[in-house]
Design a protein that fits this description.
CATH superfamily: Jelly Rolls
Radius of gyration: 14 Å
Distance between the termini: 40 Å
Number of helices: 0
Order of helices and strands: EEEEEEEEEEE
Helix content: under 10%
CATH topology: Jelly Rolls
Number of strands: 11
Structural class: mainly beta
């Protein structure tokens, strides 16, 4: 049994500017999964840098409000919204509220630095 406590995972500034805690990644842990899972935070009135991943990604909004941009489309997002980001899409998310925007990131196959390109 693997139980990973978020508080035990190191927080770091990700390449896109969000604060990230990587929870699960089979490239770094002995797990029989194909995806990776991380928790991200974007501060009030902040935006991640435009970036793209070669793999698909899903954001699940835990709290806060934001504006999700995927390629040329923009849509508001809020708690309990899930956003599918196709492989190769240019993406960013802006926190439009006064509280932190907190969301889970699921990348499948698992995230690794070689699959991400920061465009700004």
């Amino acid at each position: 049994m693997h139980i990973i406590k978020l508080k035990d995972r190191n927080e770091f500034n990700a390449g896109d500017g969000s604060m990230l805690r990587e929870i699960l990644n089979p490239k770094k842990q002995p797990l029989l999964i194909s995806y990776s899972l991380a928790r991200a935070i974007v501060g009030p009135k902040q935006r991640t840098q435009r970036h793209q991943l070669m793999h698909s990604e899903v954001y699940y909004i835990i709290s806060g409000t934001g504006l999700m941009q995927i390629d040329q489309e923009q849509e508001p997002v809020k708690k309990d919204d899930a956003v599918y980001i196709p492989p190769g899409a240019i993406q960013s998310i802006e926190n439009t509220g006064d509280d932190p925007l907190i969301f889970l990131c699921i990348v499948d196959p698992a995230w690794q630095s070689a699959i991400e390109k920061v465009l700004e």
